[in-house]
Amino acid sequence: MAPPQPARAVPATGDRVALLLPGSAAYVDLVLALLAQGIIPIPLDPRLTAGERERILAGVRPHLVLEDPAAAQELLASLPPAARRSLPRARPMHVTSGTTGTPKGVYSGVLDEAAAQALLAEERDLWGFAADDVNLVLSPLHHSAPLRFAMGTLLAGGEIVVPGPFDPERVTAAILEHRPTTMFCVPVHLQRLFAHWDEVGVPDLSCFRLVAHAGAACPPAVKHRMAALFPQGSTWEFYGSTEGQFTACSTEEWLNRPDTVGRARPGRTLFADSDGLIWCAVPEYARFTYFDDPEKTAAAWRESEAGPAFTAGDLGRLDDEGYLYLDGRREDLIITGGVNVYPVEVENVLSQAPGVDDIAVYGVPDDEWGHRVVAAVVGTATPEELDRWAREHLSPPKRPKEYAALPVLPRTLTGKVLRRELG
């Protein structure tokens, strides 16, 4: 492993800056100002434990790590004010674990002006960001989708509203006060909002022109409620990954084709290989690598008649009109509340707890979160002891909600855990 890069007080073009900061309007300003200079922000969850933080930073080797909002404000003040709304010359480097549970940065480097302009125009044309937009931020800004929607809004001259950690009452108050035109959410946000509105009444939602959701499968009942409550044509789903976006689908399309996640978004071409693996051909400006991992990069890409194509590892099928239907998420991946949790990463941590002889982590359906994280444990460790260990070493989404004691884990003849037998 290469040694960490030395700290640099003022980052330069091409440098990487890790952001372990709470989300705010100033956070988005800093991200945009860095990108305009060709400096690559690495948005990370500020709730990461010390062990998680060390492991991730070792893999992305930032030139600067910002954890103090005051230091972040100083850096923002040192950058040209106009940069906060200038053309981004890079994409943020978001970190994804992949099926190996090893954190990897999704890296696009510094873009030339033509590529940067094309990337900006693609998002603006798809979602219609405009100067009169007000984007309501519901999800943590270290995630790629909410940050992308907030940046697109600001770059178009609009405004963003960041009410803080998700709370249905707070979000409802923000809708009434700020009259947002757009918001990105995950299905659990909608479920919690609908439950709250059942108690207090549905606010006036006529201000919305775009409500986009992604990150997890959306229950049909939630889809139908969205269509009934929000203005016609305003609700959309999109499918993709940290690495890139595949589809966009209006709720009206979904109502006619239940379970689809839509057709390829403009500039993309979808196809499935003989194994049912979904590939997405993209323009050259949407290419990426996994930072410092040429083997993982090579495995994610292939050449096709439509151009360079990548896969997120999901299985699915396309109908005659090009609508995509997913047959399964990446093997073993748990999506809980719109957050990707990789069992291997959780197992690696919990296996070090005293009294654990063997462990397997898996997801089970949950009406509120989509799925919840569960751990099957062989050994003498109690659920209370494991919960304490998890709280010390894992951020909240990764902590199992249940622990099941087993005498032995079900495995194949080659030693692989049969997770389907656990769920």
Q: What class, by secondary structure content?
A: alpha/beta
Biggest sheet descriptor: 9 strands, mixed
What is the number of strand segments?
A: 24
Residue fraction in strands: 25-35%
Q: What is the CA-based Rg, rounded?
A: 21 Å
Shape: globular
CATH architecture of the largest domain: 3-Layer(aba) Sandwich
Number of domains: 2
CATH C-level name of the largest domain:
Alpha Beta
* Helical content class: 25-40%
Order of adjacent strands in the largest pleated sheet: 7-6-8-9-10-11-12-19-18
Mean pLDDT, as a whole number?
Answer: 91
List unreliable stretches of 5+ residues: 1-7
The CATH topology of the largest domain, please? Rossmann fold
First-residue to last-residue Cα separation: 36 Å
Which superfamily, in CATH terms, is the homologous superfamily of the largest domain? ANL, N-terminal domain
Number of helices: 13
Q: Can you walk me through this structure?
A:
The chain has about 425 residues and is an alpha/beta fold. The protein folds into two domains: about 15-330, Rossmann fold (3-Layer(aba) Sandwich), CATH 3.40.50; about 335-420, GMP Synthetase, Chain A, domain 3 (2-Layer Sandwich). It has 13 helices and 24 strands. The chain has helices at about 25-35, 50-60, 70-80, 115-125, 145-155, 170-180, 185-200, 220-230, 250-255, 295-300, 345-350, 385-395, 420; strands spanning about 15-20, 40-45, 65, 95, 105, 135, 160, 180-185, 210-215, 235-240, 245-250, 260-265, 270, 280, 290, 300-305, 305-310, 315-320, 325-330, 335, 340, 355-365, 370-380, 400-405. The chain has a nine-stranded mixed sheet, sandwiched between helices. A hairpin with a 7-residue loop joins strand 4 (about 95) and strand 5. Helix 1 crosses helix 3 and helix 6 crosses helix 7 (about 185-200). The two termini are about 35 Å apart.
